[in-house]
Amino acid sequence: MFDPDTLHKATQAQAQWEADYARVAKRFGGDAAAPLETHSGLPIKPCYFPQDVQNIPGEDIGAPGAYPFTRGNLPAQYQFMRWANQPVIGYGLPEHTRARMDALAAKGMSGYFGQKFYNLVYDLVSHEGLDPDHPAARGRIGQCGMAVYSVRDMERLFDGLELPKMNVVHITYYQVIPGLAQYIAYAERRGVKPAELRGNSMNWYHQSAYVGMSAFPPDQGLKLAVELITYCTRHMPAWNTTNFFCYGVEEAGGTATQEIGLLLAFGVELVQACMKAGLKADEFLPRFGFQIAQANDFFEEIAKIRAFRQVWARTMHERFGAQDPRSMHVRIHTHTSGAVLTAQQPLVNLIRTTIHALGAALAGTQAMEVSSYDEALAIPTEEAATLALRVQQVIGEETNITAVADALGGSYYLESLTARIGAAARELARAVEEQGGYIAAQRSGWIRDEVERSADRWRELVSSGKRKIVGLNCYQTEDEQRAPIFRVDPQVEHTAVERIRQLRAQRDGARWTEAMRKFEEAAQLFKHRTAADLGAGELMSAAIDAARADATTGEMMGVLKRALGWGAPHEH
Amino acid sequence: MNHRQSLDPAALAADVLRGNRRAAGRLLTLLEDGDPCAEAALAPLFAGTGRAQVVGVTGPPGAGKSTLVSAIVAHHRAAGATVGVVAVDPSSPFTGGALLGDRIRLGRHATDAGVFVRSMASRGCLGGVALATSGAVRVLDAMGLDVVVVETVGAGQSEVGIMDIADCTLLVTMPSCGDAIQMLKAGIMEIGDIFVVNKADLADADRAAGEIAAMLRLRDGGGAPPLVLKTRAHEDQGIVELVGAIDAFLAAQRASGAFEHRRARQVERETLARVTEQARRHILNTLDATVWNDVLAGLRQRRLDPIAAARRVLAATLREDSDSGTVTGAKEEPCRISG
Amino acid sequence: MPLRVLLTKPTHDCHDRGVRHLARKLRDAGFEVVFTNFLLAQEVVDAAVQEDVDVVGLSSSSGGHMAAFEDLMRGLKAADADDIVVIAGGVIPDEDAKELKSWGVRAVFGPGSSPGDVVTFLNAHVKAA
Question: What Rg, from alpha-carbon coordinates, does chain A have?
Fold first, then answer.
C-alpha cells in the first residue's frame, strides 16, 4: 500500500514514538507494555501506523459501493438519504400500538424515500405461540409487544393506512409464518395483492442456539425459513424475507467476532438449503437483512460492521456465485445494545445510546433502532421513545458526519482492526462448518458454550471492576433517579380475551375446520421433507388459507408445534 | 428451615405406596442424605418393590442421552405406562455442588402426572451411581410406576455401577468425527446389554454401528452378541425398535432364569456395599479423636505407614465393642464372598 | 448436606445468561442446582415437589412475573410444599418486589444483584434438613 520510502520514514516515526510513549508512561508510573484489548479481547496497541496496514490488499478496502463493500454498500452513504429511523413499536391492544405509530410518524419518523416504516413487535403471548385465553398468557398479554393474534386484530392495527406505501416489519419470534399468513390474508381483504406488500419477516428460528427458550427443532426451523423464502421469492418480490439476528448473539454475551462469525456460518447453511430447494443465489439473497448490535467499544463495533460486509460479500460471491451486488450487500438494521445499559442512573443510558448511534452512522448502517434510556426497566415511555428518535436526528442534522462516506476509512487502527475481525470471523465460521454446520453445532451445545464463555468473561471483568460501567461499578450515586415505569392497562387482558372468544364464535366454523385440517396435513408432510423437497410453498399456502378462515396465532402455532416438535433446544 | 424433621417413617412409607408425590420426593431426599428416618421408611416399602422395569442409560457426554430418555418416556406414556426417571449428574469434587441439567431436556413431560423425574448428584460416589440411586429406584418402584429409567453420564470405567441397578442397560453413543470406539473404553463396553448409536442422522452413523457390532462379536465368548441400534431421538425415530429390543431382551432373560439371577446378584452387591458403608460410618462415628490425632501424627512423622494406621483405627474402635462382650474382632482371612 | 435449589425461568424469556450464570455460581458455592424452564407456574410446583428442593428461584426478565408468582405461591401451598423458600430474580420493579414479599417471596434479586448476594442470602436464611 505504501512505497518503501514512506514506510521507512513511518517505521522511524514509530520507533521514536515508542520511546516517547515509554517516557510518558514512566512519568505516570504506568507500564508502557501493559496489554490493551478491545472489549472482545483482541489485543491492540496504543497507536497505529502505516506499516500496520501495509499488507492489507488495496481491493479489500476499495471504495464505497465497490466489491467487497468494506466501505459501504452504495457509492453514496448519507448524502442524499439518511438511514431510516426504525424504533420498535408495539404494546397493548392493536389500537394502542396504532396510536403510537401515528404519534411517531407525526414527530418525523420516516423510512427510505420518506415512506412510512413500522417496526412492530408482537407480545410475549404470541411469541410463545399462544392465544390470550391460554392459562400461560396471564400477565403477558400486550406486554413487550402488541396483542395481535388474528386478521381481525390486523384490521384494528392497519385500517386506514395505505399498505402498498408502507413497510411493515413483523417482529416475531417463531410465529413467523402465522404472522405473515395473517398479513397476507388481511391485505387481501383490503384488495391488496401479496406482490404489492412491502416489509420484513424475521424468519429467524435459531435464537435458541445460545438462549434456552423453547423452539422448533433446529433442522425444522431451517426448513421453515426456506419455505418462507421460496414462497416470497415467487409471490412477494418486495418482501424482505429474513432478518439475521446478530444482535441476539451480542445480547447473550457474545463478542463482536462471534456475532458476525456465527451468523456467517448460519448464512452458509441457509443459503445451501435454499439452493437445494431450487433457488439461485441472486433470486433470494437481495432480500436478506441483518440486525446488528452497536455496543460500547466504539472502534471495534465499527470495524465489525465493515468486516462483516467484506466477508459476507466474498462468501456469497466466491462460494455461491452471486453476481448481483445486492446479493452481496449486508443491509444493516442497527439495534443499539441493550445489554450494556444500566438500571442505575437510567438517564445516563441516553449518553450511551448516543455514542452507539454515532458509531452506527460512521459504520454506514441502513436503519437504526436506538434503545430507549429506560430499556433496562420496562418498555419505553413515549418521552423515552421520542428522545431515542432525537438522538438520531441530532447526529443526522447537526454533526456533519453525513457529508462524507466511510469517513473513518483509511484510519490505520480501524483498517487493521477490520482486517483482524474479518479473519477471526471467517475462522469461527470454518470451525462451525467443521462440526457439520450451524445446526449440528447448535444441537451439540457448542455454540451456546462459545457464547456463554464470552458472557462469563464479561461478567468477571465487570464484577472485578476491570471493565468499568458508570453508575454500576464506578461513579455510583446513592439516590437513584427513578425513571417512570411504563405499565400496561390490565383491562387490555380482558379485552384481548373477549375478542378472541368473539372471533371464534363468529367465524365460519366449517371453513375454519377444513382449513385447519389441511394445514395440519401440510405440516405433517412438511415434517418429513428435506430442503430439496421444498419450493412449492405448500405449507405457506395452507397457512394463508387458515388465516383467511380466521385461524389465530395460537391455533396455527399449535399445529406446527405438534407436527414439528417444540422444546428445549439443546440435546445436552 | 427444616421441612423434613418430625416425619413419621410409617406414614411416609404408606403415603409413598399410595403414590403421593410429596412423600416420595421427601423420602428420596432423606435417602440421599442417609437419614435414619429414610431407612425406617424403606423397610415397609421393600416388600412392595420389584415390579417396575428398570432401564439404565449411560454413555459418554454429548450422545444425547437425555433426549433419548425423553423419547423413551414418550413412547411408554403413549402406551399407557407410567414412568419414573432418575437423572444422575456428577458433583463437583471441589465444591460439593452440582448442576443438574437433565430435567430441562425432559420438558415435554412437564405437565404429565404419569411421569416423575428426580435429579440426583453423584455426591462424590465412585462409580457415579450412589447407593442412594438404588434407593431412589426402589421408591419410584414402590410408588407404582411401571418403568424406571436411570440416566448417568458415562465417561469411563466409573459407570460400571449402573449394572448394579438396571434390568437392562443401554449404552448410548453417537457418530463422531473420530473413531466411535474411542469413546467406548474397555470396561464400559462390558456393561451394555443393548448399544445405541443416537443422532444417526449425522454422517458415519452406519459405520459407527458397524464398528461397535464388530467389537462386540470379538467381546463375547459365545451366544448372540448385544444388539446395536440406530436412533434419531430428537425426531423420535428408532424408539419403537429400541423399546421392542429392551422388551425382547428382558423376555429372554426371564425365560432363561438370568433375570432373577441378575436381580439376586444386584441385591447381594447392594447389601455388601451397604455393609461397607455402614461399617465405615460406624467406625468413623465411634473413633476417638485422641486416637485419630495420634495416628495422624504418626503418619506425618512417617513412624506409621497407612496400613498399620488403619489397623490401629480398627483395633481402637472394635476394642470398644469387645467390652460389651460381643466378639467382633477383625478377621485376617480374605473375604470369601465373591464380588 | 448440600442445599437443593430449583432455578427456573419462563420458556419465552429471551435473556437466560443471568440465570444460567447464577446456576453455575451456586454450584461453585456447594449447592445442588436443578435448572429448568416453564410455561405454566404449576410445572414449577410439580418440579419442586418431585425434586424436593429447599429453595425455588424464579427469574423473569420479560414481564408477566406477578401472575407467575401468584400461581406459584398458590400452587406450592396446595401441594403442601409452602415450606419451600421462594426467591425472585430478574427485571422486577420495586413496587412489584414489595408486593411479592407480602405474598411470601423471601427475597427479590433485581438487575444490580450478583450471584454472591444470592449465595449469602441462602447461607444465612435457609438450612437444609
Answer: 24
